[in-house]
Amino acid sequence: MDDWQDLLREASRLRALGRVDEAIAAYERLLEAKPDLADSWYNLGWLQRKARRFDEALASYQRSLDLDIADPEEVHLNLAVIHADQLHQHEAAERELLAALERNPRFVPALLNLGNLHEDRGNRDGARSAYERALEADPDHSLALARLAGVSHAAELDERLAARLRVAIARPGTEPAEQADLGFALAGLFDAAGRYDDAFASAAAANAASRAAAGAKYDRAATETMVNQLIATFASPSTISDQAGPSPTFICGLFRSGSTLIEQILGRHSQVEASGELDLIPALVAQLDGYPEAVAEAGSATLDGWRKTYLTGLPAAPTADRLVTDKRPDNFLHIGLIKTLFPAAKIIHTRRNRLDNLLSLYFLHLDPGMSYALDLDDAAHWHRQYMRLMAHWKSLYPEDIFDIDYDELVREPKALLEPLLGFLGLDWEDGLLDFHRGTATVKTASVWQVRQPLHGRSSGRWRNYEKQLGSIADPRD
Q1: What is the per-residue pLDDT across 398-436, written as a single tens digit (0 to 9) for each?
Q2: 402 and 278, same structural domain?
Q3: CA dist., res. 40 & res. 299, Å (int)
């Protein structure tokens, strides 16, 4: 057997074992010896993407296309995902999706991603068209139907679409994850139409299906232990003072607390670069063995490496004249790490009426890792731990954390925004409240809310569901 075949077998073995760095090295040795293996270039690109070596992944995927790989639409899809999700190059992402659909017009994954890209840009008609095309290609595709419902909210219920969702949920063979997608979509339709009893029943069923699909239950004791560890590890303010250069500005809080709204407003300022919801801090944390204690034990060289890794991933670097935001709500967990890496960092903490916030989480199909959102009592427990941790961070950094209350913001925006701008060292600019006219890409569940002028319709939403909220309605909870 030729040497290159031995190299191929070894590279494939390492990839199957999940040994990413070793597998990358093995594929590089293989492709140096045998550069015409299209599938191996594809596998190398996949591994480089996992290792967050995105430019290299793009080049490897392109080599596979140059070598006429089978099913090239798959490669174009992967290229689009890197451009959209990691490099924030949305025009390039659209070009790759259109290239995939030119190869295969009925390629549902590309149609779903194209619809999602249109949603991120606020193009409702484009999104609807993409999802309808996906359903033409596969009429029983649950996610395509759920996405179509998500862009079809109206004050008058689309009975035909609601019936279609119900049929799909009840169809034999529909998996729990699909039932969850469809159920949350149905709940959203009912809620928009003021059918609150039906909406809550649909959300409850969707959350039950999501729990069944995830196979995991929220662990209250583990959450309390995690918060205790964070408080114990970061028991006093960071004494690190050797950071060079300007710091990013972090926007955090609970999901659905108004973080996207405040970033979109700030993004209208001439001196602000709004980077959107970044995964840089969670990705860094995931790489640290023994977090959070490892942060306290790290030397200056290690911290410099972590800081460089973070800054390299930013879409734009902060400068003396340009403030760059990182809006990742659950970064509230990692303020201790953030202030260790960036001692001068400013933190904007978004908060919202507790019941409105918990209800909004309950109606949203979140990542399975956010299991607290699948049960209202669990969500209330998570909220208590969040409040406990935020109180600790604010005791350490009272001058560097600025609270923004969503309900106050929509009532009296200028009264809150002027002191926030002062906190950030910025002057007021006319046009900040015209954020809804912007064309920035928004990759969160708030995509449609921030395409509208400020309004208070979401404040007090919990009153529509007061009878269903049960024990968590107690303000002492």
Answers
A1: 999 999 999 999 888 899 999 999 999 999 998 888 765
A2: yes
A3: 39
Residues 205 and 159 in one domain: yes
Of the residues 165, 196, 215, which one is the last residue of a structural domain? 215
Q: For residue range 213-270, what is the model confidence (pLDDT) as tens digits?
A: 988 789 999 999 999 999 999 999 998 766 678 999 999 999 999 998 999 899 999 9
Domain at 269, CATH number: 3.40.50.300
pLDDT digits (tens, 9 = 90+) for 300-317: 999 999 999 999 999 899
Residues 287 and 196 in one domain: no
Look up the domain containing 361 and give its range.
Answer: 220-473
**SS3 category, 430:** coil
Residues paired with 324 in a beta bridge: 273
CA Rg value for the chain: 24
Which amino acid belongs to residue 331? N
**CB-based contacts of 138: which residues, under 8 Å, 6+ apart?**
108, 144
Half-sphere exposure of 211 (CA within 13 A, CB side): 16
265 and 408 part of one domain: yes
- CA nearest to 274, candidates 314, 320, 221: 314
- 338 and 422 together in one domain: yes
If one counts every other C-beta atom within 10 angstroms of the C-beta of residue 439, the result is: 7
Q: Are residues 158 and 234 in the same domain?
A: no
- What is the token pair recorded at 118? 């249109």
Q: What is the largest CA-CA distance in the chain?
A: 75
Quick one: average pLDDT of 321-340? 96
Pick from 374, 375, 365: nearest CA to 143:
365
Question: Within this chain, do residues 199 and 238 fall inside the same structural domain, yes or no?
Answer: no
DSSP conformational letter for 319: B
- For the chain, the residue count is 477
Asked if residue 85 has pLDDT above 80, the reply is: yes
Percent pLDDT > 90 in the chain is: 81
Q: CA-to-CA distance for 163 and 160, rounded, in angstroms?
A: 5
The predicted model scores a pTM of: 0.86
